[in-house]
Design brief:
Length: 197
């Protein structure tokens, strides 16, 4: 096993991963990325994103899972799929990603081309696209990594609110492994770039 340099996804022995930022995302989406099923993140932004709105501000970050009852109904996952367990008073950080590129998609006609890269229902993507006065959605192509040793954190008040980014303590030197191969990642990246033009 080796440490993984997130930039480029190359396996490098003794590489130290030094990041403490996390991105809040539905637990079911975190699992889809962590299993290699999903390769994009789709975000409009929350009410606490600030005057400039949402942006993918970091190139590498952990995934911070969030739960709500209707998550599975808003995905294309098969009936009977179960959500990862929600721990009492704790959050378990299991995955990290690198953001390889991002863009703002403002043409609704391009949304169907994203389908094979995520698990969300078309209606959810459309709702995010139409949310607020300016149509559009941020699309980030990401590569997923699994923490060799998942990290548990006690729930803190600072983790709440409608914002995307969190600072997390105690996640330095995480040992990570990619969830898909370099070849598969490159194929997905090239396919999506071609579809979006």
């Amino acid at each position: 096993m080796c440490k993984v340099s997130l930039v480029g996804g190359t396996c490098v022995k003794n590489e130290v991963i030094n990041m403490s930022v996390a991105f809040k995302e539905w637990a079911v989406v975190c699992e889809a990325i962590g299993s290699g099923r999903q390769s994009v993140m789709l975000r409009k932004g929350g009410i606490a994103e600030g005057r400039d709105g949402f942006a993918f501000k970091h190139r590498e970050f952990f995934l911070f899972p969030t739960w709500f009852h209707e998550q599975l109904e808003k995905t294309t996952l098969p009936v009977g799929t179960t959500l990862p367990p929600q721990l009492e008073g704790e959050i378990e950080i299991r995955y990290a990603v690198t953001l390889e590129w991002s863009r703002l998609v403002t043409d609704a006609g391009r949304l169907p081309s994203l389908r094979e890269f995520h698990i969300l229902h078309d209606s959810v993507v459309e709702e995010r696209f139409r949310y607020d006065e300016v149509p559009g959605i941020h699309v980030g192509f990401v590569r997923g990594f699994r923490l060799v040793s998942p990290h548990r954190l006690a729930i803190q008040k600072s983790f709440g609110g409608c914002r995307s980014w969190l600072d997390l303590p105690g996640l330095e030197d995480a040992e990570l492994v990619p969830v898909i191969s370099d070849e598969e990642n490159a194929a997905r990246r090239d396919a999506l770039q071609a579809l979006l033009g």
